[in-house]
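Long-time lurker, first post.

We've been arguing in lab meeting about whether glutathione would sit comfortably in this protein at all. Half the group thinks yes, half thinks no, and nobody has a model to point at. So I'm putting the question to the forum: if I give you the sequence and the SMILES, can you give me back a predicted structure of the complex? Inputs are below. Any interpretation is welcome too.
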Amino acid sequence: MPGSCIPKGMLDLYTWQTPNGTKPAILLAELEVPYELHLVDLTRGEQKGLDFLELNPNGKIPVLVDRDEHVGCAVVFESGAILQYLAEKFGRFLPHELGAKRAAVLSWLYWQATGPAPVFGLVKRFARATPRDDAAFGHFVAEAKRLVGVFDARLEDREFVCDEYSIADIAAYPWFEALAKELPEALEGTQNVHHWLKRMGHRPGVKLGMRLEQVKRAA
Ligand SMILES: N[C@@H](CCC(=O)N[C@@H](CS)C(=O)NCC(=O)O)C(=O)O
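Top reply:
Settle the argument with this. Predicted structure of the protein with glutathione, as tokens:
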């Protein structure tokens, strides 16, 4: 690709196996929408190549290109923007009407993108850094625990983040799942988060998306 932009009635997802990278794959699996998967190998720095920078000048995955004849070629970067774009395009997992329900989903979507995503990412980075910077690590662990507490309180008496399963759940899942593996003690005593993680992890679409796989269709 990436320069050429020929509408072909198809979605292209440029991504890699990371928490931000799996979010759109989960949503596409939940929607049962086919797409072309393009792996951008972060270990080889492909996200900083000139071709890729044409799609996302910020040099990060994921990126979605919608080559639908009706929209021309829409290039969407930032995982939150991709989730919102797909939810709006297919009319699912985001309340359509302006009002309290839509506002809640978008609030929790952007909370995830600006809180848990960067903070949990930095917990992982500082946990693995050598030499270890204890002050920085301690700071991000404390902030991660605070965010987990906020999420746990939100999930009290709720099956999902908002009234119904939505892109707010999809955005949060890969990061909370990653934190649960990297630093399980950060989730200690947060039963609501544990139950939500289990519920999410059982969903077929979530399972497929986490492996960057698509729904298989009968031939
Ligand atoms: N805010 C962006 C963050 C994207 C991001 O950090 N992507 C990471 C993978 S999870 C990446 O591409 N890292 C490679 C790099 O920074 O060079 C989003 O939500 O899409």
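For your lab meeting: The chain has a mean pLDDT of 95. The pocket of glutathione is lined by residues 18-21, 42, 47, 59-62, 78-80, 113, 117 (CB under 6 Å). Whichever side wins, do check it experimentally.
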